[in-house]
Description:
The protein is 38% helix and 13% strand. The chain has helices spanning 43-46, 54-62, 76-80, 83-90, 125-130, 142-152, 154-179, 211-217, 231-238, 248-252, 257-271, and strands at residues 36-41, 65-70, 95-98, 110-112, 120-123, 183-189, 223-228. The strands form 2 sheets. A 5-stranded parallel beta sheet has the order 2-1-3-6-7, with helices on both faces.
Amino acid sequence: MAFENLGGGALDYYPCRYGKSKLLFRGPKRRLDVPYFAMLGGTETYGKYLERPFPAMVEDALDHTVVNFGCVNAGIDVFSQDQAILDACKNARVTVVQMTSAQNMSNRFYAVHPRRNDRFLRASNLLKTIYREVDFTEFNFTRHLLTALWEVSEDKFTMVERELREAWIARMKSLIARIGGNVVLLWVSDHTPCSQEDSDPSGSDPLFVGKGMIDELRPFVMDVVEVVVTKDEMAAGLDEMVFSDLEEPAARELLGGVAHRKVAEALTEVLRPHT
């Protein structure tokens, strides 16, 4: 059952830092002076509202240290700007990189917060010129911004969407190159990577990431793991999550416990030869 009435402090994430990084990660803190796997990603990798997210499950299954470098609401920018975490990933036997949404990163049209990549900071002069009718002071989050832009003009939004997709590919290639060594990409969502990308910004994460974009990255990585979770599995997985009444709407947006078991099983198979 979900522990809806235990309050916001019901689950202890044991927040910790590694090296000189300013980011807070989920603990307990793991040693970096022993062989380990690293896992980069957003809210799902962090495992919000779950006692045992998939990095912990993989660690148990392989009896091998797994360092959880997941950050809530993270995009690519969080990691590409943190040298301490990049260095830690270089030293890992394998680094698993969860593919996060394309809208949560700075680009030619707008800037995001360096650590909370879902936070919209400011529009560029280029975007203000294209959307003269929009008051950008009304927006705090990237998805709200993009939904509004799409509703104002789908034709204009095509330019924004193209920029996000191209920037995502370039930023991912750079991140993979800076990590070096063995990298596994992880797709986890309620849908498969689409060959025909959807422009609607109200869709589910990873937003604006399609099959063709992932295919461009395949030559640079060791493997790509795809895990798709059904609506029924998401509903069943909600019962394994720990959240308060106020947190329930946010918890329902996540993939849940069943999804994390499926990811753990898939990653365990891929990582076992490297233990």
